[in-house]
Amino acid sequence: MSEEQEVKKAFGIQKLYVKDLSFESPTSPQSFGVKKWEPEIDLKLSNSQRHLEGDLYEVVLVITATVKQQDNTAFLVEVHQAGLFSIVGFEEAEKKYLLGSQCMNILFPYAREVISDMSVRGGFQPLVMSPVNFDALYQQHLQQQQEQPEATESTH
Q: Measured by CB atoms within 10 angstroms of the end CB, which terminus of the chain is less buried, N or C?
């Protein structure tokens, strides 16, 4: 195969941005008077991707953090951290991996920073999230997809 026929692979970040952001503190200012801050934190992560045009894709990581103190919601913050990515020359499986894992690894630190910043702006301690292994989550997703047809077939 000559160099002219060789397909060049390229993965690039075109833009990173906050697509949507929400902060609620339904029990403030009462939640500020808690003597011992021992919150329960519930985190939900999801993502979506869509092909825009050509080699351009929009990927959105959604993180919702609900922080409760003594069964009352102290605050809730949700961020839709998005990015525009160009993906050129990759096979379909490679492209799905880039969109489902690598783009999430790029977006996550930005979303984590927004969540920490919003918790402080809301009058609370910074909410510092641990790293997420998006490779493992992507592999788990693939495994679930492979098991679904088997489960469907066995119910007939």
A: C
